[in-house]
Amino acid sequence: MAEQIPLSPDASAIFAALDDNRDDLTHEISPGLAYRRLALVNVVFVGLPGGGDRGWVLVDAGIPGSKGFIQRAAEARFGAGARPAAIVMTHGHFDHVGVLLDLAEEWDVPVYAHPLEAPYLNGTAAYPPGEPAVGGGLMALMAPLYPRSPVDLGARLRLLPEDGSIPDMPGWRWLHTPGHSVGHVSFWREADRALIAGDAFITTGQESAYAVAVQRAEMHGPPAYFTVDWAASRASVRALAALEPEVVITGHGQAMRGAEMRQALQTLAEEFSRIAVPRRSRYLEHPARAEDRSAYPAP
């Protein structure tokens, strides 16, 4: 079982939410940046409140059954009938694409992802099998049961621009942060040093159902049961720590800000093998990679 980096007992000091009482039930952590927790995963809203139709972007698309929660939060935050200009994906695991097809079709929006993640979003490849041997609790033990089949977005799927820009997200850049999946990306805004990390690292113990429920403040590596390349994951965490972010939103756990968060992230980067890498996993000796197509089993 991998270790974790606990943060201060007064965890409220590092939680990033500026306003926990918004009517849309989102947590705004920086101007034009908010998130909402949906059971075991977060979705992110990029855009100023009241931005109106096509005046904002959704990052990731939750778990199955979360469509109404996302739509209600979006309308309360941006206005009645307000659709996003785009949906942008950190990656396509089942807990991030739960209602992607429904939302993309109903909102009539493009969906952007990294080219190496495209096979999971155009119906041509499944994800590699989950790995229960990583240990840590019920969430990991159930890994073989999690859906791995791709979704097929058809013509709505677009590739992120090669220059690092993100359509309809001015001031943001995408960063390729593979390891948890081969085409995983994170999003960075230099102006306020805001980082949307996806599952490159997370702030709760996702392998444990108890940790998922209580959301204790901890700095973790990526969810181990679906991470397919630990060397790549280590490099990605080091690259993100080097940015020295002021605020981070991860795919799982609470958003965080400040010096203690940065120190915990730096510790994770420096001691990644001890803290994050499991003792057992098929992907330690045989990582799933795009180069040899081992990351793309048939659906």
Automatic annotation (TrEMBL):
Domain Metallo-beta-lactamase: residue ranges: 40-252
Domain of life: Bacteria
UniProt-listed Pfam families: Lactamase_B (PF00753)
PANTHER family attached to this UniProt entry: METALLO-BETA-LACTAMASE DOMAIN-CONTAINING, METALLO-BETA-LACTAMASE DOMAIN-CONTAINING PROTEIN
Protein name: MBL fold metallo-hydrolase
Classification of source organism: Bacteria, Pseudomonadati, Pseudomonadota, Alphaproteobacteria, Acetobacterales
